[in-house]
Design goal:
By secondary structure, the chain is mainly alpha-helical. It has helices at 2-19, 28-31, 35-41, 43-71, 77-86, 90-98, 103-113, 119-137, 141-173, 177-230. The longest helix has 54 residues, at 177-230.
Length: 235
């Protein structure tokens, strides 16, 4: 009997819905939050985060191109330098360095220009040029480290501000989820955006630092080989 009553009730409700006597709730899409409005509401957090992301991507691409150019060297470059120096063809060695657009070439060109001075003076000249070249490669790379730390902090700031709005909404309107939704959205989205930007900047920074380290190692190896050439008997 109860089962018959249940099905009868459901059929009656279904008939009322079909006839329009009972209105279904509005769809989630119709009740959805206006994302554009919410974005504008949190623009003071989102815009700095997006600026950090754009600048970080630009720096990463720019430094990657510079490092690729620095690592591009002729396979027999040092062999030719050795040959020219041992044969006393210093002008040829200088011309080779001037036509090779790499930090190693510019560093060795300075050393060749110092040939005739003491080994200490040559080493100092090479080291000074090397420091300048490394400084060029590292230009703006520290901004990525700053971005990796600042973006999540901005996200955390947005989270705190959003939660303050949530508690203020509870104080004014009581535990009304609809009233709290905007501030909760601000709190969550700023955190997500901050973490995404921070993670990307963190990996970009470490990638560039690693590759610059390879260039430095290449420069050091070339400098040591150059000094060994100069210290060979007869030079």
């Amino acid at each position: 009997m109860d089962l018959f009553f249940f099905f009868s009730t459901q059929l009656e409700i279904g008939g009322q819905v079909a006839s329009g006597a009972v209105q279904l709730p509005e769809t989630a899409q119709e009740e959805g939050i206006d994302f554009i409005k919410e974005f504008i509401k949190g623009a003071y957090i989102y815009i700095p985060q997006l600026l950090l992301s754009f600048i970080s991507v630009y720096i990463f691409i720019d430094r990657t191109m510079a490092i690729n150019k620095a690592m591009k060297a002729e396979s027999n470059f040092m062999a030719r330098i050795r040959e020219y120096i041992l044969q006393g063809k210093l002008d040829s060695a200088k011309n080779l360095c001037s036509t090779t657009n790499t930090p190693v070439a510019r560093m060795l060109e300075k050393g060749i220009n110092r040939i005739g001075h003491s080994t200490g003076d040559i080493k100092a000249a090479i080291e000074n040029v090397g420091k300048l070249e490394i400084g060029k490669l590292e230009r703006n790379v520290n901004f990525l480290a700053t971005s990796a730390g600042a973006a999540p902090m901005l996200g955390f700031l947005g989270t705190v501000i959003g939660m303050v709005g949530v508690f203020n909404s509870i104080k004014v309107n009581g535990p009304d989820l609809a009233a709290m939704g905007g501030d909760m959205m601000l709190a969550m989205i700023t955190t997500v955006v901050g973490l995404i930007v921070g993670i990307i900047a963190f990996f970009a920074y470490n990638t560039l630092v690693s590759r610059i380290g390879k260039v430095i190692h290449q420069m050091e190896a070339s400098a040591v080989e150059f000094i060994d050439i100069l210290e060979q008997p007869g030079n």
